[in-house]
């Protein structure tokens, strides 16, 4: 009977919501109080204090509007459409523009000049127009992603992004496809078994009392797989009811699983004051196979393998295998008279069999800590390179590993090698059946632990 570790449900981020709400209330209350006091100081004739208080009121209001209102709106309003409406960032040019608007607004309040009020209204309208135009630019856009089916580590491959505009009359300008914002790694509560000992300062064997206890702590969630798309693609114009396509260059330095859960469309159109962002949920997974490389190790092994597997069989082929002493039953056509004259004994020529030798590639996955990480990755790459070579040059080849095979599917074997990690109790050499195949074994086990019958008809590649 196994003891399962209970996992407590994750806690909702209420503290952040309450903190933002409190900041909004305090900020708006302070802005209201500053506006009231500015009216009092204006009636008293204190122009400097009035300007300071009025500017502080406007500055607090804008600060709350930029930092707090979008967050609260995203939490309160449901639906992806409304969440996208509040997902924006203020650029550096936008910050300068807002400060200039505040200064002109303070001047308008102090001088009561109607022209300054009109200028402030026009400047605020430009901010509103910027938000509306950016929302229109990102609206009704559809993204399609095409990824290659087979990808090897260390090689550059190509994909494509297709961005379509389904709007009837309105084009979209200056839209970029970027990775989504990185989300914070979440944590959850987990209860674990522990032991309560008293006195706590003494070692366990000297404690008076020891009871089974539970300990609750916060642990981070499992790390997510690396993303597929890390760059940025810019589309200057997407005409209405049409689409534009761009090539995507992909290169992955390490094998493994890569996952892309979403993409983001961003634009600073039309004035560059706000950067509007829209998240598109579009999940893709990509398996990156180990690198296939003609390294010095692979180049050294292949000629040895060619000689070893050919020496296993003799037959009526065209290639001379060896010259050996005559035995009854040998054909007189194969007598080598020159070797017979030199040795004084009857010698015959033996030829290699023309038929193809069946080859079996075996990856013996080691246990964790048995080899270094670099040696392990080199072994995985060696197994993948040998499998790729023999699959391209032989018609009879099979692949075996812990949890895979025997199978002749080279793509399945490469997929297995792309995701394999060291694991305990995965040794398979003693369970390999004798099939008459010539085995190429990638292992970290010493020769003494490999069965002699298997070792006699195989080539051992050390991790």
Order of helices and strands: HHHHEHHEEEEEEEEEEHEHEEHEEHEHE
Distance N terminus to C terminus?
38 Å
Would you count the extended β strands for me?
A: 18
Sheet having the most strands: 6 strands, mixed
Task: Name the poorly predicted regions.
Answer: 1-14, 77-82, 311-316
The share of residues in extended strands comes to 25-35%
The overall pLDDT average reads: 76
Secondary structure category: alpha+beta
Shape assignment: elongated
Number of helices: 11
Oligomer: single chain
Helix content range: 25-40%
Topology overview:
Blueprint: H1 14-43, H2 47-67, H3 69-76, H4 80-85, E1 88-90, H5 92-111, H6 114-138, E2 141-146, E3 151-152, E4 156-165, E5 172-178, E6 187-198, E7 209-220, E8 233-238, E9 242-251, E10 256-267, E11 274-289, H7 296-310, E12 320-325, H8 337-343, E13 347-351, E14 359-363, H9 373-393, E15 397-401, E16 404-407, H10 410-419, E17 438-443, H11 452-456, E18 458-462
Parallel strand pairs: 3-11, 14-15, 14-17, 17-18
Antiparallel strand pairs: 1-11, 2-4, 4-9, 5-8, 5-10, 6-7, 10-11, 12-13, 15-16
Helix pairs in contact: 1-2, 1-3, 2-5, 5-6, 9-10
